[in-house]
Amino acid sequence: MHESRPMVALDFPSLRDVKNFLLRFDDHEKLYVKVGMELLYQEGPVVVDFLKFQGHDVFLDLKLHDIPNTVGSAMKGLARLGIDMINVHAAGGIEMMQQAKEGLIAGTPAGEKVADLIAVTQLTSTSQESMQHDQMIMTSLEESVLHYAKCTDEAGLDGVVCSAHEVQKIKSVTRPDFICLTPGIRPAGAAKGDQKRVVTPEEARTIGSDYIVVGRPITRTENPMQAYQTIKNEWNGHF
Ligand SMILES: O=c1ccn([C@@H]2O[C@H](COP(=O)(O)O)[C@@H](O)[C@H]2O)c(=O)[nH]1
């Protein structure tokens, strides 16, 4: 699939900052937003309630990674928030991912759609060198990502977080509809910051990413609405 809206990473410390940011957009603009640890740990679930009430779709990017029982129970609670997508770390293992899925299904209120559940392979801030040195995984980075993608598929999840560089191979070893959500998006010339495996929105489209996640190139600009529209146009091939 191709989600036409770039997912906006709401990496802010407070709900007040989120509200100020959203004021820069037209009222009718319904976004697909990503809520991560920074915001959720400061504000709690109220932030999700607010965003859903405003009509936005929400990816809860908490990257759960713990023993299977703990992750399963946490998922059961999080499922009640009415989120659209949520994730875990594939490094937690197949059993952990299976329990995450069971918890998500068990916690989803009757009649509501179960959120997409995806797993992080290797963070886009990780290079092959840092992976080998820090994690002592001595394969290539691509092999590690493909291995985690296959484990994620085996566990019955919907897809993975990866860099766009790995999308085509992941789909060839899993299935075409296996979700590949790709952060590490940088318009040409934009600062990479801590990201290592980056592509432009246009490259992500031609490669076949299903979702792109964009934070600072939208949230840390003078005109977020304009930056969002420019990235959205590039992502959709409208120049
Ligand atoms: O591998 C990953 C997984 C998650 N992220 C998250 O995406 C955004 C990217 O923000 P930028 O400002 O565009 O770099 C951020 O919230 C990360 O936590 C990721 O970058 N890579």
TrEMBL record:
Gene3D superfamilies: Aldolase class I. Pathway: Pyrimidine metabolism; UMP biosynthesis via de novo pathway; UMP from orotate: step 2/2. The keyword Lyase applies. PROSITE patterns: OMPDECASE. Homodimer. Belongs to the OMP decarboxylase family. Type 1 subfamily. Catalyzes the decarboxylation of orotidine 5'-monophosphate (OMP) to uridine 5'-monophosphate (UMP). This is Orotidine 5'-phosphate decarboxylase. It comes from Lactococcus muris.
